[in-house]
Design goal:
- The complex is a heterotrimer of chains A (236), B (277) and C (570).
- Chain A has 236 residues and is mainly alpha-helical.
- In chain A, 59% of the residues lie in helices and 8% in strands.
- Chain A has helices at 37-41, 45-48, 59-78, 92-104, 106-125, 130-143, 159-189, 193-225, and strands spanning 3-4, 15-19, 28-32, 80-82, 89-91.
- Chain B is mostly helical and 277 residues long.
- Chain B has 2 domains: 1-139 and 239-277, no CATH class; 152-237, no CATH class.
- Chain B contains 10 helices and 2 strands; from the N terminus they run αααααββααααα.
- Chain B starts with 13 loop residues before the first helix and ends in a 9-residue tail after the last helix.
- Chain C has 570 residues and is of the alpha/beta class.
- Chain C has 3 domains: 5-247, P-loop containing nucleotide triphosphate hydrolases (Rossmann fold), CATH 3.40.50; 249-289 and 538-570, no CATH class; 301-537, Rossmann fold.
- Chain C has a 6-stranded mixed beta sheet, sandwiched between helices. In chain C, strands 16-17-18-13-19-20 form a 6-stranded mixed beta sheet, sandwiched between helices.
- Chain C is globular, with a radius of gyration of 25 Å.
- The mean pLDDT of chain C is 91.
- At the B-C interface, helix 8 and helix 9 of B face helix 4, helix 5, helix 6 and helix 15 of C.
């Protein structure tokens, strides 16, 4: 029995290609049909079907959500990048939620921002400002739609992925801050229309920059930590 | 260094005795009533109710001082911005115009605008105490259990409990990392260029996030090994049974909620109480 | 029920998908009901993978190719879920903070029952009775950050015992505990084993500490294979431990130095079983023979701390009247229990916290007015977990970071970085991504990143925590080299081997006060200090007392000097 840890040999008719499309190890397994193939793959029969699904919630997603939300709360309260406009700052927390959403999907992303924003509002103001908490959740939920096609776990995050991530990120932020937040502000708090849309547009721009810069840099840094050792040479 | 997220301490008051479920339901009912209604009579009533509860819960001023300062700053900023953006919003809402004074240009002060912004102020003044009471008197252990009981699936409720569990750990990490990076020369000042401000923030964020990600596997393994997620439901060690006082509190909250809705629908025929017509 | 086989590996092998080679091969093990087994092996030997196979994390969480049979209880693991297995085998993990998922002790113990949808009243009764077994019944309402490491671990133990499992697996139970707490943990495991008759499997590389209590068998794992399966007497008598990089018990080393041939007949498996009459003569004559002149060349004072007090809130004193002097080129240990103020001293020295009163002098001059950044050029601080310091992808950039933030020219940076990397043995890896490095190498990167600022004093927080003997030796020999280049080193630690082998002097803290500042041998042989600092008596001292050496402290000192000079050639 031979197992290859590469996607070569696919042309060989004798080979069965099994795509292990799950969370952390994207390996293409090629197993020769001869001999007792099924003995080797038996333990994986139930997991083979487990493709990357947008809405699957397993223990790992739950833990990632919780730790992500704790990080979000902390960054939201303490780690802000002062912007050139006085009295405003970039919320690095949206870079974090975009990063987690890419790694763990929309459910994790949405909950991280929803819980994190709600918690930090509650800690600072005593009560969450619901319309914006919900908008945070919606934005980060949408960020998660870059999750399924991502191969970042293999260290693959090239220009194409950066562009895709940023398009999704911009869409998410626009939907959340220019549509969801103002509409909820009007519905829940009966705020003036021009005020809430102006606020929404400013928030969208700021958060697009935060999620774009911080999120992209985090993703690049993360993908580089996933590089395998093989390609390296000592520098003599 | 603050290690506890909330200054929750058990005190022997009727509010502390209520189960988490009651508190979460009452909180939702009352805040929804306040958010929905723009009838200053109802909201003032609820505000007085909120302050009575606040008093009953024996919350110390020193515990909430900082929060209140934040809230006042937020509310005042909001009021000023609202006026600057929409000085005629009250007129639009109530359909009449009683001008008081002209300030300059399009900025005049109308009775309608004052009434609208006044109502909004009372709304904050009544919602915030409920939030504070909820935070200060609810045992964090009951959070997830209560959310689950109001119908949130446990797989969505449990992360809330875990967030509260690991927040202090992450906060301590953050402080350590931040100091160690400052020793290497990091300065988070406004003097640097925007590009280096982002770079500097990343010097803290990257080690913080990446060392946290390392823990996801450990914690989720620990949970899997003790059977988390195997069933469609789970029970809660810290869930409290509802007592008589819970039913009283729930009844009262429901009553207030119903009255507010009733007044809006059958008396005002709108979310707004309009004294101008 | 006795003697029934409860764990059976038959021609078992396992290979992770991400690995090119199998991690475990040809494993054949039988463990009988009620046995107490220790699994030892160096890092990367596959012992943790073996644990994952036992509790079902393989194949539940880690995927790979499994061959052969593994039965746990009466379950064939590959046909059963991790949930079925969790009713037969309970696991106490190394990281007790990671395992502690509840907001309070009570909730955490009840976690498995909650997942079984048990009704609340039954849970409360059961939690009460299980917590009594591990002595945590007074703490049911406490939060994890109010507890010590030992208490968290006991909570974890209660959390797996609540399922009334037949087998309890401990994965490196000593890794995060101080010596006294570790000793107590081994005693608790022994008590539980004796009272309940459960099968106990301990995975650990700190052999001597586990052998504080009785063990039926020791399995030695190396390179994915079982290389030995013996009782403790046979294991300690063999040369296998040294061959496979496991530290042998210190008393056994001392016996060897004194010329005793270690064989099963002298029962060397545990200090408590050692046949003293057979070894006494050799030890006494060795002790009488060995004499070293202790050369105490005191260099100039580099750092002196006088009447230092510190408090976070102005009321509760964290540090009380701290006085000490450190000389140039010293390598010293700061020891004490958690919360004794060890880390606080480091933070105050580095300027992370501002002392309430008192003075800190560097070369006779006060450094009170220096900022954190400026102090870092005198006193460098290396955190315990290298991952908490690394923020760049490439080694070069990471090391250069501190200099770039000081606006030094790139040419000057290049020289300094290359110099620091050379000292740390990382020059050939200069352009590597840090992610490709091992834990020990990352540690070196963080040390290089501090050294590049050219500090005169280095403070390291637990430099060897969680490392096996081989990696421990690598890190410590490296630190010793740096020290010989003239950098003064202060280590915050509770590793007694480290103190014994590498530091001549130790400062002991208890409740914010210095209770001892003396030679390592004196500190480690003083019962009061041992107790106050949560250390434990070293087996060398126990041995010395047992054979009635007149001055056991000097015996320990002899051992240290002999080892340093004759064995390591320093």
């Amino acid at each position: 029995m031979v197992c290859y840890l590469s996607n070569s040999n696919i042309n060989d008719k004798k080979n069965v290609v099994i795509d292990y499309n799950h969370y952390f190890d994207y390996t293409y397994m090629v197993v020769e049909v001869e001999e007792l193939v099924f003995e080797t793959i038996i333990i994986n029969t139930q997991r083979r079907k487990r493709m990357k699904k947008y809405f699957e919630v397993n223990t790992k997603t739950i833990v990632a959500t919780a730790l992500g939300a704790a990080l979000f709360t902390l960054l939201f309260m303490f780690v802000k990048v002062p912007s050139p406009i006085p009295e405003t700052s970039f919320q690095t927390a949206y870079g974090l939620s975009a990063f987690f959403a890419m790694l763990f999907g929309p459910i994790a992303g949405g909950l991280i921002a929803f819980i994190g924003h709600g918690l930090s509002d509650a800690l600072q103001y005593g009560s969450p400002w619901w319309s914006w908490v919900i908008a945070s959740g919606v934005a980060s939920f949408i960020f998660g739609f870059a999750f399924k096609t991502s191969k970042i776990e293999d260290g693959e995050f090239v220009l194409k992925d950066i562009i895709r991530f940023n398009i999704i990120q911009v869409v998410g932020n626009l939907v959340a801050w220019v549509v969801v937040a103002p509409v909820l502000d009007i519905l829940i708090y009966a705020e003036p229309v021009n005020l809430v849309f102006t606020q929404g547009i400013i928030a969208a721009v700021m958060n697009i920059i935060s999620a774009g810069v911080i999120g992209t840099l985090l993703l690049i840094a993360y993908s580089k930590t996933r590089v395998k050792k093989g390609s390296l040479n000592k520098n003599d | 260094m603050r290690t506890k997220l909330f200054s929750y301490n058990y005190l022997d008051t009727p509010i502390h005795k209520l189960s988490g479920l009651t508190k979460i339901l009452s909180f939702l009912l009352l805040t929804f009533a306040v958010m929905f209604s723009y009838d200053i009579r109802c909201i003032t009533g609820i505000m007085i109710f909120a302050f009575i509860i606040f008093k009953m819960a024996k919350i110390q001023w020193s515990q909430v001082k900082l929060m209140v300062v934040y809230v006042i700053v937020f509310v005042l900023t909001n009021a000023i911005i609202t006026y600057l953006f929409a000085p005629e919003h009250g007129v639009e809402l109530y359909g009449t115009r009683h001008e008081l004074i002209k300030i300059f240009g399009r900025y005049t002060m109308t009775l309608e605008q004052l009434f609208y912004q006044g109502t909004k102020l009372v709304k904050y003044a009544s919602v915030i105490p409920f939030g504070i009471i909820f935070l200060m008197t609810t045992n964090p252990s009951e959070f997830a259990a209560s959310l689950n009981k109001v119908g949130v699936h446990y797989k969505l409720a449990y992360p809330v409990s875990l967030t509260l569990r690991y927040f202090p750990d992450i906060q301590r990490n953050y402080q350590d990392i931040s100091l160690a990076q400052q020793a290497r020369g990091l300065e988070m000042s406004n003097k640097a260029s925007l590009k280096s401000r982002f770079k500097n923030a990343l010097m803290i964020i990257i080690p913080l996030i990446f060392s946290t990600i390392d823990r996801i596997d450990v914690i989720s393994n620990a949970m899997d090994l003790r059977g988390f997620g195997k069933g469609k439901k789970r029970t809660w060690y810290s869930g409290k049974k509802l007592a008589k006082i819970d039913y009283i509190a729930l009844g009262l909250s429901l009553l207030i909620f119903m009255i507010t809705i009733y007044v809006s629908i059958f008396i005002n025929h709108s979310r707004f109480y309009n004294p101008f017509i | 029920m006795k003697n029934k086989v409860v764990v059976k590996f038959k021609d078992f092998s396992f290979q992770y998908y991400s690995q090119a080679e199998p991690t475990l091969t040809d494993i054949n093990i039988d463990i009988k009901s009620g046995e107490k087994i220790l699994i030892v092996g160096p890092s990367g030997s596959g012992k943790s993978t073996l644990g994952h196979c036992l509790n079902g994390l393989i194949p539940f969480s880690y995927r790979g190719i499994m061959k052969g049979e593994l039965e746990v209880g009466s379950l064939v693991t590959k046909d059963h879920s991790i949930y079925d297995l969790s009713k037969v085998i309970g696991t106490v993990l190394q990281d007790s903070d990671g395992q502690f998922v509840g907001l309070t002790v009570g909730e955490d113990i009840a976690f498995a029952m909650e997942n079984d949808e048990t009704v609340s009243s039954i849970m409360h009764t059961r939690v009460k009775s299980v917590s009594e077994m591990v002595g945590m019944d007074q703490f049911l309402g406490s939060s994890p950050f109010e507890l010590s490491g030992g208490q968290k671990q006991r909570t974890a133990l209660a959390g797996v015992m609540i399922d009334d499992v037949d087998i309890i697996l401990f994965d490196e139970p000593l890794a995060n505990l101080d010596p006294a707490t570790g000793k107590r943990a081994i005693e608790i495991i022994d008590e539980i084993h004796q009272t309940t008759g459960k099968t106990v499997i301990i995975i650990e590389h700190r052999l001597e500490d586990v052998l504080h209590c009785h063990m039926d068998r020791i399995l030695l794992i190396n390179d994915g294979k079982v290389v030995a399966d013996m009782n403790p007497d046979e294991m300690v008598s063999s040369d296998l431990l040294i061959r496979y990089g496991i530290r042998e018990p210190l008393y056994a080393t001392a016996l060897k130095y004194s010329g005793v041939k270690i064989e099963s007949t002298i029962k060397p498996g545990h200090m408590s079983t050692l046949s003293l009459p057979l070894v006494k003569e050799s030890i006494l004559s060795w002790d009488a023979k060995v004499e070293y002149e202790i050369i105490d060349t005191k260099h100039e004072e580099i750092l002196s701390v006088k009447h230092l007090n510190f408090s976070y809130d102005g009321t509760r004193e964290i540090l009380k009247d701290i006085n000490f002097t450190i000389h140039k080129g010293e390598m010293i240990a700061v020891v004490g229990t958690n919360g004794a103020g060890k880390s606080t001293i480091a933070k105050v020295l580095c300027g992370f916290e501002k002392e309430t009163t008192g003075t800190i002098n560097y070369l006779g001059e006060s450094i009170a007015n220096l900022s954190i950044k400026e102090r870092a050029e005198i006193i460098g601080y290396v955190m315990q977990n290298p991952n908490q310091m690394i923020s760049k992808n490439l080694i070069y950039d990471e090391v250069a970071l501190g200099l770039r933030l000081r606006n030094i020219s790139e040419e000057a940076i290049k020289d300094k970085v290359e110099h620091a990397l050379k000292i740390c043995g990382l020059l050939p890896f200069m352009d590597w991504p840090i992610s490709a490095l091992s834990y020990g190498q990352r540690k070196r990167v963080t040390i290089a990143a501090i050294l590049v600022l050219d500090p005169k004093i280095l403070i390291l927080d637990e430099p060897t925590a969680g490392q096996d003997y081989k990696h421990y030796s690598e890190i410590m020999n490296f630190l010793e080299e740096i020290n010989e280049m003239g950098i003064t080193i202060i280590m915050i630690t509770h590793d007694m081997h480290l103190m014994l082998e590498y530091t001549k002097r130790a400062i002991v803290l208890s409740k914010g006060e210095i209770i001892a500042d003396a030679s390592t041998a004196e500190v480690m042989t003083d019962d009061l200090i041992i107790e106050a600092a949560n250390l434990k008596e070293t087996s060398l001292y126990t041995l010395a007392k047992a054979v009635n050496i007149k001055n056991p402290t000097s015996f320990v000192q002899h051992f240290i000097e002999y080892e340093r000079r004759e064995v390591r050639g320093r």
